[in-house]
Design goal:
This protein is an alpha+beta fold and 149 residues long. The chain folds into two domains: 84 residues, F0F1 ATP synthase delta/epsilon subunit, N-terminal (ATP Synthase, domain 1); 42 residues. It is built from two helices and eight strands. Strands 1, 2, 3, 4, 5, 6, 7 and 8 form an eight-stranded mixed beta sheet that branches.
Amino acid sequence: MPIEVEVVSRVRELYHTTRATLVVIPGSEGQMGVLPNHTPLLTTLNYGELRIVEGQQEVSFVVYGGIVDIRPDKVTVLADDAESVYDIDLDEVEAARERARQFMLEHPTDGQRAEIAQELRRAEIAVRIRQRVEASGHQIRVLDDTGAG
């Protein structure tokens, strides 16, 4: 019995499947694997990689907080922000990291410093996850605008 999985950001639905066999969630208490018939649970998301396994294929997202509702037959991820790992442009991320580092040298206010630190953290996580996915050799699925592969 597969699991239905829906990944939604504040802006739009990013992904939907009814064929998942495993979902790996970056929970606030650590990584959590969800198999069919999981006990119902509502938990918060940490920054990290959300992986959805469908047989031999795997789809990955970088999520930046949110909540997840787990039911025996469905997982609903309500991410504060999320993006497909396959949409991450490493050159753009590296350029953004460099701009943030330079801005930190310009004596920003405490509020600006916190924002910059948050953006740097997001960039570091995105790069690390993208590199892990590329190195793993998993088949990459390109997602269209409707979240279908």
